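During the reporting period the student researcher (J.K.) took over the structure-prediction task from the postdoctoral fellow and processed the backlog of single-chain submissions. One of the processed entries is reproduced below for the supervisory committee.
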Amino acid sequence: MTEPTGNSGVIAPPPLLYLGTLIVAFVLHWLWPAPILGHATWEVWCGVVLGALGLGLGLWGRSKMISAGTNINPLKPTTSIVTSGPFRFTRNPLYVGMTLLYLGLTIGFDTWWGIALLIPLIIVMHVGVIRREERYLEGKFGDEYRQYRSTVARYVG
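J.K. obtained the following structure tokens:
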């Protein structure tokens, strides 16, 4: 298999996809409020917990990538397959973390718009980011990546 050069060809940096979607959700909520439960106390705490878990997972994955000496930015070449830390349980801890953080903010700010927009966001992430990264990593690392992929779940395992 020919080794690809460059990067995975993602459609956009994932943090921008999440941030852009969150901004759209907040604007829609401002124009047409769609509260989940009307700022119930448990709702705020649930949002805080989910957001903290997501942030923690993302930062843990980021630190493992830095330790391995590979690029975090998917617009740059990947230099190694990271299999330690949260990468033992999910091949995408940064994206799972961003999803939890997004969901925590959505629940904490009490808007159904964020939940409604999460569905297309996850589809865009799956097709436009994750599947492209998987093709790139398989082309670049071959059997090493295929072995890793066969033992660790794409999202949560």
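The committee noted the following: The mean pLDDT is 94.
J.K. will present the remaining backlog at the next meeting.
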